[in-house]
TrEMBL record:
Gene Ontology molecular function: any one: metal ion binding
Alphabetized CDD domains for the sequence: RNaseJ_MBL-fold (cd07714)
N-terminal signal peptide: none
Residue intervals of the Metallo-beta-lactamase domain: 18-193
Residues in coiled coil: none
Entry-linked InterPro entries: Metallo-B-lactamas, RibonucZ/Hydroxyglut_hydro, RMMBL, RNase_J_2, RNase_J_b_CASP
Domain of life: Bacteria
Keywords: Exonuclease, Hydrolase, Metal-binding, Nuclease, RNA-binding, Zinc
Protein name: RNase J family beta-CASP ribonuclease
Length: 368
């Protein structure tokens, strides 16, 4: 815009099953590296890997400012902290839904969206030709808690201006129907915990899905169990969210959490193990557990493995194989059924509503 580059998110994706030896897939930065002096900044919509995961790789090549909400910035810091070359990087700028940043002829503003992590933001770039609206990952859910609620009046306010282009999340449109709202998912998780009183429960979830983690914490407390955080990624995310008061603890930490080391002091069915795997990819680590390769957790006949994440298309075959391996260990497996799945992405109806509000001259689907 006016010879300035505004980067909207810097995410990664996980490889397809046939991409052997590949851990993650990141964008090609060549053009941006050649035009570093034109970059106004990286504007982050939320704190998931598909929005912040490429930062450790990108910031090794260029030194540019990063803008994001408080939680998103803290998660971005966690993402790059293991890169020694970036230990001195500190060009972070915390913004919120009320922020407006003036870059001369271009103004950048924001609006709250509903996603599976608090402080998700849409981004509005004002130009002389009209506004460019980037939704980030979003959906509409009128039952969402305040941390997750879309600011509809603000959307309408933005839409009353001239919208040059809408860059919108379309990842959930192929599914057709709206997804189940999160309050029903929370009830389903609690019901599962209550129905398995004599089982140790191993829950597979995505580390950065704060909404799901809140539901697991609530169900753990309600069934008088203690929660084990399995791995540094989930430990860091939970501690950060607690510090920023984006996770609400129903009990004091000492009554709610137990370490992996002290887990053996409890009766097995009194514990819930929250397993998220490396880089928030839970299924691959669950596969290692089922193979007996985890040093701390062995899956057995007294366990219920509860998969609360919806696998990507690339991971569906891995999930099926993992389920078979868990069954061979004598454990029960439960996975959120298709009719109970809740997506963090816009359905067809959500996208239609966003289009109706914005009435853009141009529409660009950016996922899906």
């Amino acid at each position: 815009v006016n010879d300035e580059i505004f980067i909207l998110d810097a995410g990664l994706k996980y490889p397809e099953t046939d991409q052997l030896g590949v851990d993650v897939v990141v964008p090609d930065f060549e053009y941006l590296i050649k035009n570093t002096e034109k970059i106004a900044g990286v504007f982050l919509s939320h704190g998931h890997a598909d929005a912040i995961g490429a930062l450790p790789y990108f910031l090794q090549q260029v030194n540019v400012p990063i803008f994001g909400s408080e939680l998103t910035i803290e998660l971005a810091k966690l993402a790059i902290k293991d890169q020694p070359v970036l230990k001195d990087y500190n060009d972070y700028h915390i913004i919120n839904e009320k922020s407006e940043i003036d870059f001369g002829n271009v103004k950048v503003s924001f609006f709250n969206t509903t996603h599976s992590i608090p402080e998700s933001l849409g981004i509005v770039i004002g130009t002389e030709y009209g506004q460019v609206v980037y939704t980030g990952d979003f959906k509409f859910d009128q039952t969402a808690e305040s941390y997750y609620r879309t600011d509809i009046p603000r959307l309408v306010e933005v839409g009353q201006g001239k919208i040059l282009a809408l860059l919108a999340d379309a990842a959930g449109t192929e599914g057709g129907a709206d997804s189940v709202n999160e309050s029903k998912i929370g009830d389903y998780i609690l019901e599962t915990f209550r129905d398995n009183k004599k089982k140790r429960i191993i829950v597979a979830a995505v580390a950065s899905n704060i909404q799901r983690i809140q539901q697991i914490i609530d169900a753990t407390a309600a069934t008088k169990r203690k929660l084990v955080l399995s791995g540094n990624d989930i430990e860091n995310v939970v501690r950060t969210a607690i510090k920023l008061k984006k996770l609400q603890l129903p009990l004091p930490e000492s009554q709610l959490f137990v370490s992996l080391k002290n887990m053996k002091s409890l009766v097995a069915h009194e514990t819930v193990i929250l397993e998220t795997g490396r880089m928030g990819e839970p299924i691959k680590h669950l596969n290692r557990m089922a193979n007996g390769e985890d040093a701390h957790i062995k899956i057995g006949s007294d366990d219920l493995v509860f998969i609360t994440t919806t696998p990507s298309t690339a991971m569906e075959s891995v999930v099926a194989k993992t389920r078979d391996m868990i069954f061979k260990q004598g454990a029960d497996v439960k996975q959120i059924s298709t009719d109970m799945r809740s997506s963090g992405h816009a359905s067809r109806n959500d996208l239609q509503m966003m289009l109706n509000i914005m009435q853009p001259a141009y529409f660009m689907p950016i996922q899906g």
